[in-house]
Amino acid sequence: METWVRFSAQSQAKERLFRAAQYACALAGDTLRRNGASAGVLASVRQLEAHLSLGRKLLRLGSSAEALEAAKRAIHLSDMVLRFCITLSHLNRAMYFACDNVLWTGKTGLVPSVDQEKWSQRSFRYYLFALVVNLSRDAYEIRILMEREASGKRAKGSDNGRQLRADNGLQQLGLRLQIQLRLLIRVLRNNPPLLLDVVKNACDLFIPLDKLGLYKTNPGFVGLCGLTSSILSILTILHPWLKLKP
């Protein structure tokens, strides 16, 4: 299993590049279609996108082992909420990769009897579950940091109490929301890894929602979201300090 983990780690950067190119093709294809490009050009772009998708699936062979190893490490985290969210996310990723591997055998013709539509839907469900858990983890991290920031300001004698004095409840609610919004912006600005993780997970969320028919958008929007999250993932590989830990 450790051999597979090392192999997957070496393939991760290549897979991210393939992913960025795949979703760039999706975005370009939709843009060309809207601008009245010829059927031949659109077919070439779609074919390139399909080849890139298949190449990504090849690079992800064995990634389930890496996800399971990450889940085993997450079990030992001291924070109960982080332990639950990170472990569950890795387990869902492991199932997503397993379904993706089965789908690859069908697309390559190794196992022609594979029901590609069924396995595709199944893989996107696990992908969606993992993203929802990831965003829940992000929300928890934000809440902890906002509470810490607010406690620090109170300790320094902040004037929040004076600001919350208002003539009526509606004004008071508005002031509270403004304070919370400023606090949120400050927390995200001071924690680039958390900000990148939130944006990346939010962008990725639209992909399974669209594929599962839960929230239909269009190929161009899905391509833009996938390209954005891929670029952010590449940034975390190039600059490891930008990756949210643990």
Mind sketching the topology for me?
Blueprint: H1 2-34, H2 39-59, H3 63-74, H4 80-107, H5 116-155, H6 160-163, H7 169-190, H8 192-211, H9 219-238
Helix pairs in contact: 1-2, 1-3, 1-9, 3-4, 4-5, 5-7, 5-8, 8-9
Give the biggest sheet.
none
Please give the number of β-strands: 0
Mean pLDDT: 90
Helix content: over 70%
**Contiguous uncertain segments of 5+ residues:** none
Which geometry do the CA atoms define? globular
Could you give the order of the helices and strands?
HHHHHHHHH
Structural class of the helices, strands and pairings?
Answer: mainly alpha
DSSP strand content: under 5%
End-to-end gap: 21 Å
Rg, Cα atoms, Å: 22 Å
Tell me what you see in this structure:
The protein is mainly α and 246 residues long. The chain is built from nine helices and no strands. The protein is globular and about 65 Å long.
List the defining traits of the structure above.
single chain; 9 helices; globular
Quick description:
With 246 residues, the protein is mainly α.
